[in-house]
Amino acid sequence: MGSDATASVTVESINPKVLKCEYAVRGEIVTHAQRLQQQLQTNPGSLPFDEIIYCNIGNPQSLGQQPITFFREVLALSDHPALLEKPETSVLFSSDSIARAKQILSSIPGKATGAYSHSQGIKGLRDAIAEGIAARDGFPANADDIFLTDGASPGVHNMMQLLLRSESDGILCPIPQYPLYSASIALHGGTLVPYYLDEATGWGLEISEVKKQLEDARSKGITVRALVVINPGNPTGQVLAEENQRQIVEFCKNEGLVLLADEVYQENIYVDDKKFNSFKKIARSMGYGEEDLPLVSYQSISKGYYGECGKRGGYMEVTGFSSSVREQIYKVASVNLCSNISGQILASLVMNPPKPGDASYESYVAERDGILKSLARRAKALEDALNSLEGVTCNKAEGAMYLFPQVRLPQKAIEAAKAAKKAPDAFYALSLLESTGVVVVPGSGFGQVPGTYHFRCTILPQEDKIPAIISRLTAFHEAFLNQYRD
Amino acid sequence: MSFIKTPAVPIESINPKVKDCEYAVRGEILNYALRLQEELEKNPGSRPFDEIIYSNLGNPHALGQKPITFFRQVLALCEYPALLDTDDTHKFFSSDAISRAKKIRSTLTGKSTGAYSHSKGAKGLREMIADGIALRDGYPANPEDIFLTDGASAAVHMIMQLLIRSENDGILCPIPQYPLYSAAITLHGGTLVPYYLSEAKGWGLEVFELKGNLDLARENGISVKAIVVINPGNPTGQVLSESNQQEIVELCRKEGLVLLADEVYQDNVYVKDKNFISFKRIIKSVGYSDDEISLVSFQSISKGYYGECGKRGGYMELCGFSEDVKDQIYKVASVNLCSNTSGQILASLIMNPPKPGEESHKLFFAEKEAILSSLGRRAKALEDAFNSMEGVSCQKAEGAMYLFPLIKLPNKAIEAAKKVNMVPDAFYALRLLDATGLVLVPGSGFGQAPGTWHVRTTILPDESKIPAIVSRLKAFHESFMKEFQD
């Protein structure tokens, strides 16, 4: 092609950061699963299972979870406001969804849900979110600190792009972590500085470990810019204790680190002895204000009990940055104009759901609690099942949507993996897929202590499928161990 | 927001590429306009105009254009499927909207708009888009080569990130250009290689000008990877002739350049003697094979007659890329999981609108024609107005949504601008805003031949407002020219 050496686009000629970045959640194992799924469609009965069950990704509505009725009523009315002019509408829609849609539309200039909004998101919706944050935390929030984004992920990218100048800039990340962080750091040319969560203590975060890693990185000439904390954790599911959170805040303040608080699972907590505290609340309750700590708090509409992954909504609340830096953040947001309006609307609903006395309140609570209680039951059932397997230990999922069991693989299995040129946990996960149709993600995709092997499985398949999944998993694991017994 | 004395993140420490990038469309002049608007709201009558008219941004619905009824009916039904099966459904929704919504839902993961879709976008929707492309061009399209994104902008970023390794990699861009390109190239660390459109020739693209700049860049050690062509043009509005397009394609093939075809205004052509022809069709009709030329075609739901800016939808169609490079593109797309499902659905609708004989076709066609003919009239009215002004010449808007008049600013005005540290066209635009309430973007935000000054206005204000806008514009210009008469 062409006469010039710079001719065709090849894997050798593209941006090496793109080559370097990995995202296992939709990686090789998923591609293989999709091929198997095709095979099942063209050749039913050709595999030892009837269907592929995708436990690789936190995608509740793909596995039968229903959206919250009130939220979808409001969305439909906002999308097609002509509905609001018809008398029959009050028969089809709850009165409070009609009122909320009208309120939302009036906050949009020209009631035009098809127009680009302010680059941070519609002001009226940010006001509603700020109120929701204040009600949650007991400390005020400012609509001007909120940037609505297409999911939380673009907000993460924005901060990585802002903070990373070169590979001499580092970001502290938990190991194991949700691989958006490692991927984004790679894409933006920085260095991931790992700090290990402690499996033996329920994936606890030890501040001494974080400090050690920070100092180690600094001694190697890395300027560490920020600390990522995922609370509740992904893939680990732990909910941080308040004391722990205070230590983290203090640490970031003293070391001049930006605290990047991934709080997308704030409404997924399954244990009575823990609750979600936002890092903003913790910092403010310690008396720390804007001048003390740069903090970016991420929330998403994809998780919780709402699970609106496909609508792509979320926000970052940005506090503790100078106005000149905030202008830069705004400027980058303006290049892509704004996030999608449906996602913005859902974010405002998630942070301001129906209240007692509202027409939809009771049905909303029933739907919400039904989903959350079911998630807690499924988390427990799968955790118990995994713990009953030989050589497998699984920490409790206090929150989030995943289990991350440790699997002690026999030496023979590790060797077989090497021969197949696969990471041992990827080898295990692939064998699991081929025997059972269940798709999990190898622990190597999230990071783990070297020499240990894990996989991440979601707790999301419908409750009535859980027993079958458990029995297939159990049968597979027994057979696998027998095959590779030392 | 409190003043932060010694910020943990000083402005000097952020990524310089972020600081360097500019996006005038939502830049300084807009900030000033927003302040004026607040002032008007607090103090009506304080200004020589009643309202701010935002003619800075291609945002049709914000200025009163209505969405296409059929599209919003389908969207509402997809968001709240309970609507599909009520006794009253047919009172609200046409039967073809109902059947389209059912068809679309069946293509979605979990039959829900709330689930993450495939990272390229739902397969069934990509098939619908591929069908639409094939019908438009007369050549088949492969759904596997289509990537649905949150607006075309997100796809542009993906390609810039893919192609640019360092500032030694260059991208040819038209001057003037839509400043997403200059911003994206800066953010991704590359070099913009300009090629000047010829104002005297209706903003025509001369291939020898292209080649000249390409050769010059290469002599300076820049590896030029791609060329951006915006057709119809933004801000210039020209529609390329077929022979021009063939020359461009031939140049790309010969020089090994990736052709980045921004075709988001393909449904905005106002002149009878020109037609939109996609670059894909040109390549196929000449008979080039996939290994001879690489093409990325961008389309968006934000423009045309649909104007669904806020829904954030669009796609890129890849042609002539190897499987392993496409795998890398897929991998990057997977990190952010997928684009929003409303945008995906709208993209499938615009590429597959109601056909003659279908229940909604009559209304659809009437709405579409009304919008497009009105745009054509507004383009002409504003073009004539500019051409009647002293020292102003304005090329015809053959397509797109903008006019980009050339203004011969008197020396005194240029000096006055320099005194207040402003670029002369920004000075003019600011004075214009102050006098008329009309927000335009200075030509310096798009690039222009040195020593020339332009402003970009949209043609989008409601038709009823155009006469008042024209008279205010003329009055302002007359008085400005008088004030700064040499």
UniProtKB/TrEMBL annotation, chain A:
Coiled coil: none annotated. InterPro entries: ALAT1/2-like, Aminotransferase_I/II_large, PyrdxlP-dep_Trfase, PyrdxlP-dep_Trfase_major, PyrdxlP-dep_Trfase_small. Keywords: Aminotransferase, Pyridoxal phosphate, Transferase. Its cofactor is pyridoxal 5'-phosphate. Pathway: Amino-acid degradation; L-alanine degradation via transaminase pathway; pyruvate from L-alanine: step 1/1; Photosynthesis; C4 acid pathway. Its EC number is 2.6.1.2. Residues 110-464 form the Aminotransferase class I/classII large domain. GO terms for molecular function: L-alanine:2-oxoglutarate aminotransferase activity; pyridoxal phosphate binding. It catalyses: L-alanine + 2-oxoglutarate = pyruvate + L-glutamate. It comes from the Eukaryota. It holds the Pfam family Aminotran_1_2. Transfer of C3 units between the cytosol of mesophyll and bundle sheath cells to maintain a nitrogen-carbon balance in the C4-dicarboxylic pathway. Belongs to the class-I pyridoxal-phosphate-dependent aminotransferase family. Alanine aminotransferase subfamily. Homodimer. This is Alanine aminotransferase 2.
TrEMBL record, chain B:
Homodimer. Its EC number is 2.6.1.2. Keywords: Aminotransferase, Pyridoxal phosphate, Transferase. Its cofactor is pyridoxal 5'-phosphate. Residues 95-472 form the Aminotransferase class I/classII large domain. Pfam families: Aminotran_1_2. SUPFAM superfamilies: PLP-dependent transferases (SSF53383). Transfer of C3 units between the cytosol of mesophyll and bundle sheath cells to maintain a nitrogen-carbon balance in the C4-dicarboxylic pathway. Belongs to the class-I pyridoxal-phosphate-dependent aminotransferase family. Alanine aminotransferase subfamily. Pathway: Amino-acid degradation; L-alanine degradation via transaminase pathway; pyruvate from L-alanine: step 1/1; Photosynthesis; C4 acid pathway. This is Alanine aminotransferase 2. GO terms for molecular function: L-alanine:2-oxoglutarate aminotransferase activity; pyridoxal phosphate binding. InterPro entries: ALAT1/2-like, Aminotransferase_I/II_large, PyrdxlP-dep_Trfase, PyrdxlP-dep_Trfase_major, PyrdxlP-dep_Trfase_small.
